[in-house]
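User: Predict the structure for this protein chain, please.
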Amino acid sequence: MCIRIISLSIRAKEVLELLIGEMDGDLIHYEYHEIEGERGFGNAVFEKFYTSPKHKKIIIVNTQNLKETTNATIILACNYDEWSLRLDSESADECMDEIMEILDAYMINEKDG
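Assistant: Here is the predicted structure, written as structure tokens:
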């Protein structure tokens, strides 16, 4: 499993919509809950093939902006059918690089995950 925690300058809903529009993968699940005004939280789950068509990766993006800044947690894991397989660093880097490239213009900082 690979995890990154980042802060972004756009709303949580915008993060999810941006990734849905830009990610090259299958969207499995999406939900967003508005609390009030521009505050809210949500998540999106994608499935994507990396390095080998037999090895699907699950990408989970959880966002929330309950205060001023949007925080996002990005989790990469093997497909549930492949839990016995390790997430190889090459495909994890490739996947995370794709996500970070999409969000780069909005990134404020990155925390240890």
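The first strand starts at residue 2 and ends at 8.
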